[in-house]
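Pair request: fold both.
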Amino acid sequence: MADKAKVVITDYVWESLHVENQILGKLANLTALRTKTPDEFLGAAGDCDALLNTYAGPITAEVMARMPNCKIIARYGIGVDTIDLAAATAAGIIVTNNPTYCIEEVAEHTMALLLACARKIAFYDRAVRGGNWAVPPGKPIFRMAGSTIGLVGFGNIARQVAVRAASFGMRILFSDPVVKEGQFRVPGKKVTLEKLLKESDFVSVHPPLTPKTRGMINDDAFLMMKSTAFLINCSRGPVVDTAALIRALDERRIAGCALDTIDPEPLPDPHSLRGRENVIFTPHAAWYSEKAMEGLQQGAPNEVRRVLTGQWPVNVVNPEVRGKTRAKIAAPKTKAAKARTPAKRAAKKKSSRR
């Protein structure tokens, strides 16, 4: 191919780019970087046609202005909180994410952390390794069957957590401003956030990170929780106010927490949360499995491939960009638009005369 596009990978955390080369090799020249900030990748990305992004950011309006040929920013992961979507839309840049590659993994990890809290697994493991073979130090432990899990956010992952929690005989509550009770065929009763916090034995947070959800689990939220309740976070670290969490633990407002994500990340050493017997950490690993890794690497490059070959991507997170993209791609018609075609209008008009 004479004139290949230029695709820049801002950062990646896997060993090989074989998948990316296999998907894009015939269409584009790939420039792979391991950067953390725009200042580090803009030197290479200034003339790019597409940007593949993992963590490096934030990608602001100013950053986009310095990539005048960039047609798509494709995130390898789910969250797009590091990308200014309004600025991307104004610039005509399509932004995509990869929303389904690790649904099962994160749901399983959430349940693993919940079980570790409920059964004091990490606590007992440390005790036995330290030479203390005894049950009493871990008391009290409560039966999971009949206990209540509260899911803050009821998206793809949270609904899979609900299915798994139900198999343990747990009562399931959820709070989500956009999901109606009974909308999906999964167990769960919709309640207010306040009711959820007051009644749940396990509060598991799953909202996207937005200005509204940033810090939503704060001092007020912890004051509403049971003193025997555990907090679990496998979503985004900043959803939980870390300073408020420390205060809640210090004042024994909650029984403990299990965190796969935290703010800041990685957690500094030393840090006030480290060394506590009632805090469990995993290093933002909930997403990972070998199968999920395949989906992770394939998702974003395939979206770039679609744009470079004149196709509309599958997982566009700024659909308002339709009709004004730098890529000059005609977006597929919506159902409503299809219903307004001349043939449809004529049929509808004829039907109305009957």
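--- second member of the pair ---
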Amino acid sequence: MLKIPCTSLLIFLLIVPCKTFAQSSYNSNFDFLNSFASPNELGMAGAVSTLPSQSSMAAWYNPALLGYTPTRSLVVSLSPNNQAFFNDLSYSNYSVRYQNSIVKKNRTFDWGISLAYANEDFGVLQVTTIDQPEGTGETLPLFSSVSLLSSGISTSFFTGIRVSIGYSLKWYSNNWITFDFDRLLHDFGLITDLSLFDFLGLRIFDSSFLKMDINYRLGYSIHNVGKSYSYNTEFYNFQDEIENNYIVYAMPQLAKLGQSLTLSVTHQAIEVFAVDISRDIFDLQQKNNQQTQSIFSSDISLTRNFFNGKPDLKIETSTGLRFHFLETFSISYGKREFANEWVTINDSDYIYTTYYSKSTYKGFQFHLDGLKKAYLDKQFPSIKPYSLSITYSALVEESNTYSYLKNPTFWGIDLYYRF
């Protein structure tokens, strides 16, 4: 029996020794690449890297999530013009996801692919010249955008243990930092899933009336692996003396460890109740370190940070809780904790002060599946393959932030077709 979990853990750790390198310093202008930009996930403060869902934006958080949802289905998600932190800043995302399964050599593989587009809109910039300092009448739209092509596949290696891997190819565009900046980036993900009752061979909770499942998952993902960005400081009239007049910025590479626990109770193919508890630990070493290092190296302590960790300048944490009722309503709560360093100058001396921030999120989702299974599918068989969900989420409270920031609100609609 001991060989089974050890083998699963070995598979999970195989990715760690691989070598890819981050370079030079960090530019906060690229933080959109690590934002929580979708309503289904925002309600849990983005702590969803190991939490399976039908969301077509799941690969943004971990591409290995596309190895879940084995039913053959197509999901289209629309989430336009979400209000963000500033009056002139909004987020939009549009995505599509396809899921299927195949059988090879008596083994079932669940796989999925998704295509997503996320946009951060800063409004427009008035074009001015020396001769026309009040403006020429021309405007330039300011935005950041990401196009994401992802795939994932999973299979069971032992009874009750499933392993999923995933990969995403990103095309990042930004026209407000350097005007027409583009970069090709990569994400990698891995999730191991333990179905407790199946693994232990327990059937006492598996009856014709009620069925209970408990799943524990452990995941690891790497985000935004790609070539660094450099520009000539002479063009920007910087006064700092930098070797060869160039400054180099690494893309905001991020290592993420996640865990989640799901308890569900099912009655006659309808999920009566379920609760998800999840926690993600973000390793900021990759994002902030100005020295070259392997993106797979991490000083994250599982025992310290997964269960009772306090964020610091190297660690950011997100914790989420979600309740599901009758496959119809879901209520989500999330908390994000992080530390920042404030720099002040006093008589040419730099004074560094560390302060801690906490953001609280909430979310609500209405899903048609429960009502369809209980009533509509029987009365209207032609609509059986179709379903939809509507999601709303918002940042409720944020401590230690500026007063001019407003709380963002996100909403979206997902359309489903099951073949």
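Observation on the second member. The chain has six helices and 19 strands.
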